[in-house]
């Protein structure tokens, strides 16, 4: 995991650098990302899945040019879900054939650009999109490789807002006719396959399923894989074609708190590979090429946010409110999903007794909570630095300018040196957009 240690005077060091020095140089709040850890995680996923499978990093978790270059160098592919992510990927030099385009409502411009540059796959999400992508590819004289995203009716055990495979949700095409019979086939997904197979400008290469996010229980993936293979079997029986690819999406959980116990990439790869192989063998299908799309599991644990304590308010008999210089604008996950984080005094050691604290931001909203319940030393004082680990995924990428906050920088730390990969916003950046 991230190389965080306690150095002189109990201050945290990351990638060989003291947080006090980092705060001095880069200011707070800021995200510090351990490049070596990021690369090691990419390699762990790559090696675990081996040559017979592809790992697509989910760019929505966090994307920047530097990250794209690291992904490229470590042999990963990239999943993008917007024109902005696609532009970043291309600008940083990711070969288009290693990019997959996602989204439930891709614009005509996004589809056109993706086909023009030659993305490796477009994941189709609706009947309208099948027609739209086919039309654009046809007009451009291309044959575009596509997968169909299906909803397999698996309810991942995670927060409802981020579970994406209920049948009653906006993504994908349902395998079954209704929620009661997901195994029955003959649903929207089968109809989508019929339509795609008739279109010359589309090449159907596989079926895609993504069941949710921050998942620990592999059982959901097992059901998903079984149902996807079930569809491949139906496709073979109805059309006489065996599709060569299966994508089981992302969603693997990480440890936000000590209670979370994530699986290793190697075990995940083994269990997914085994399930797909077993199901295919029993259906008499050739084993398709597997791909997965981890975002959080790669970048989440590699970064922490560093804040400075500004004010401290003790509510007797309740808890102490510790206000930091960021908040919901740099980490919306606590307010939005009730997400749990841990927090530690990072700038010094303390022997003081623990006090029940709530770490809150500086925004004009009482729900602006970074860490709901945490024990911090009772001698905490303004000017102390707090580190919130595991903020690499869905924090900077979901950051906002609420209250005209300036979004914090992302600083890559490696071998005792640190460099900004996404700079801090300035007031000029804010005002540049305000043209009225
Ligand atoms: N593939 C697809 C098609 C997805 O929709 C997602 C995430 C992923 C891969 C990557 O999932 P991951 O491995 O990162 O869990 N904002 C929420 C998470 C939303 C995830 C949406 N889709 C959060 O902060 O928890």
UniProtKB/TrEMBL annotation:
<feature type="modified residue" description="N6-(pyridoxal phosphate)lysine">
    <location>
        <position position="60"/>
    </location>
</feature>
<dbReference type="GO" id="GO:0008836">
    <property type="term" value="F:diaminopimelate decarboxylase activity"/>
</dbReference>
<dbReference type="InterPro" id="IPR029066">
    <property type="entry name" value="PLP-binding_barrel"/>
</dbReference>
<dbReference type="InterPro" id="IPR022644">
    <property type="entry name" value="De-COase2_N"/>
</dbReference>
<feature type="binding site">
    <location>
        <position position="394"/>
    </location>
    <ligand>
        <name>pyridoxal 5'-phosphate</name>
    </ligand>
</feature>
<keyword id="KW-0456">Lyase</keyword>
<comment type="pathway">
    <text>Amino-acid biosynthesis; L-lysine biosynthesis via DAP pathway; L-lysine from DL-2,6-diaminopimelate: step 1/1.</text>
</comment>
<keyword id="KW-0663">Pyridoxal phosphate</keyword>
<feature type="binding site">
    <location>
        <position position="394"/>
    </location>
    <ligand>
        <name>substrate</name>
    </ligand>
</feature>
<feature type="binding site">
    <location>
        <position position="251"/>
    </location>
    <ligand>
        <name>pyridoxal 5'-phosphate</name>
    </ligand>
</feature>
<dbReference type="InterPro" id="IPR022643">
    <property type="entry name" value="De-COase2_C"/>
</dbReference>
<feature type="binding site">
    <location>
        <position position="296"/>
    </location>
    <ligand>
        <name>substrate</name>
    </ligand>
</feature>
<feature type="binding site">
    <location>
        <position position="337"/>
    </location>
    <ligand>
        <name>substrate</name>
    </ligand>
</feature>
<feature type="domain" description="Orn/DAP/Arg decarboxylase 2 N-terminal">
    <location>
        <begin position="36"/>
        <end position="299"/>
    </location>
</feature>
<feature type="binding site">
    <location>
        <position position="365"/>
    </location>
    <ligand>
        <name>substrate</name>
    </ligand>
</feature>
<dbReference type="InterPro" id="IPR022657">
    <property type="entry name" value="De-COase2_CS"/>
</dbReference>
<keyword id="KW-0210">Decarboxylase</keyword>
<dbReference type="InterPro" id="IPR009006">
    <property type="entry name" value="Ala_racemase/Decarboxylase_C"/>
</dbReference>
<dbReference type="InterPro" id="IPR002986">
    <property type="entry name" value="DAP_deCOOHase_LysA"/>
</dbReference>
<feature type="binding site">
    <location>
        <position position="333"/>
    </location>
    <ligand>
        <name>substrate</name>
    </ligand>
</feature>
<keyword id="KW-0028">Amino-acid biosynthesis</keyword>
<dbReference type="InterPro" id="IPR022653">
    <property type="entry name" value="De-COase2_pyr-phos_BS"/>
</dbReference>
<dbReference type="InterPro" id="IPR000183">
    <property type="entry name" value="Orn/DAP/Arg_de-COase"/>
</dbReference>
<protein>
    <recommendedName>
        <fullName>Diaminopimelate decarboxylase</fullName>
        <ecNumber>4.1.1.20</ecNumber>
    </recommendedName>
</protein>
<comment type="similarity">
    <text>Belongs to the Orn/Lys/Arg decarboxylase class-II family. LysA subfamily.</text>
</comment>
<feature type="binding site">
    <location>
        <begin position="293"/>
        <end position="296"/>
    </location>
    <ligand>
        <name>pyridoxal 5'-phosphate</name>
    </ligand>
</feature>
<dbReference type="Pfam" id="PF00278">
    <property type="entry name" value="Orn_DAP_Arg_deC"/>
</dbReference>
<keyword id="KW-0457">Lysine biosynthesis</keyword>
<feature type="domain" description="Orn/DAP/Arg decarboxylase 2 C-terminal">
    <location>
        <begin position="305"/>
        <end position="392"/>
    </location>
</feature>
<comment type="function">
    <text>Specifically catalyzes the decarboxylation of meso-diaminopimelate (meso-DAP) to L-lysine.</text>
</comment>
<comment type="subunit">
    <text>Homodimer.</text>
</comment>
<dbReference type="Pfam" id="PF02784">
    <property type="entry name" value="Orn_Arg_deC_N"/>
</dbReference>
């Amino acid at each position: 995991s991230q190389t965080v240690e306690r150095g002189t005077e109990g201050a945290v060091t990351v990638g060989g650098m003291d947080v006090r020095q980092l705060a001095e140089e880069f200011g707070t709040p800021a995200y510090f990302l351990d490049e070596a850890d990021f690369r090691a995680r990419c390699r762990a996923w790559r090696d675990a899945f081996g040559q017979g499978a592809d790992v697509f990093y989910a760019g929505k978790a966090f994307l920047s040019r530097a990250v794209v270059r690291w992904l490229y160098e470590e042999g990963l592919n990239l999943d993008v879900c917007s024109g902005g992510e696609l532009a970043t990927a291309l600008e940083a030099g990711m070969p288009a054939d290693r990019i997959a385009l996602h989204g439930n409502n891709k614009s005509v411009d996004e589809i056109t650009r993706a086909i023009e540059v030659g993305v490796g796959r477009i994941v189709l999400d609706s009947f309208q999109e099948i027609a739209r992508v086919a039309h654009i590819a046809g007009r451009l004289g291309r044959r575009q490789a596509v997968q169909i995203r299906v909803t397999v009716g698996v309810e991942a055990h995670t927060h409802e807002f981020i579970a994406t495979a209920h049948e009653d949700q906006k993504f994908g095409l349902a395998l079954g006719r209704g929620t009661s019979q997901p195994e029955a086939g003959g649903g929207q997904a089968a109809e989508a396959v019929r339509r795609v197979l008739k279109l010359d400008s589309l090449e159907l290469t596989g079926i895609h399923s993504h069941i949710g996010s921050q998942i620990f229980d592999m059982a959901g993936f097992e059901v998903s894989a079984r149902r996807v293979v079930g569809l491949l079997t139906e496709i073979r029986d109805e059309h006489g074609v065996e599709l060569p690819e299966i994508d089981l999406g992302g969603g693997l959980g990480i440890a936000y708190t000590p209670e979370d116990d994530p699986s290793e990439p190697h075990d995940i790869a083994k269990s997914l590979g085994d399930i797909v192989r077993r199901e295919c063998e029993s259906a008499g299908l050739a084993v398709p090429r597997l791909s997965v799309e981890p975002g959080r599991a790669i970048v989440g644990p590699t970064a922490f946010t560093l804040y400075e304590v500004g004010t401290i308010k003790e509510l007797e008999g309740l808890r102490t409110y510790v206000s930091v210089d960021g908040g919901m604008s740099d980490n919306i996950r606590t307010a939005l999903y009730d997400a749990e984080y841990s927090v530690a005094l990072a700038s010094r050691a303390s022997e003081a007794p623990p006090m029940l604290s709530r770490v809150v931001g500086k925004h004009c909203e009482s729900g602006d909570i970074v860490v709901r319940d945490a024990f911090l030393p009772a001698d905490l004082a303004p000017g102390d630095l707090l580190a919130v680990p595991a903020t690499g995924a869905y924090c900077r990428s979901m950051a906002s300018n609420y209250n005209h906050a300036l979004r914090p920088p992302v600083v890559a730390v490696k071998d005792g040196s640190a460099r900004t990969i996404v700079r801090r916003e300035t007031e000029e950046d804010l005002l540049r957009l305000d043209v009225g």
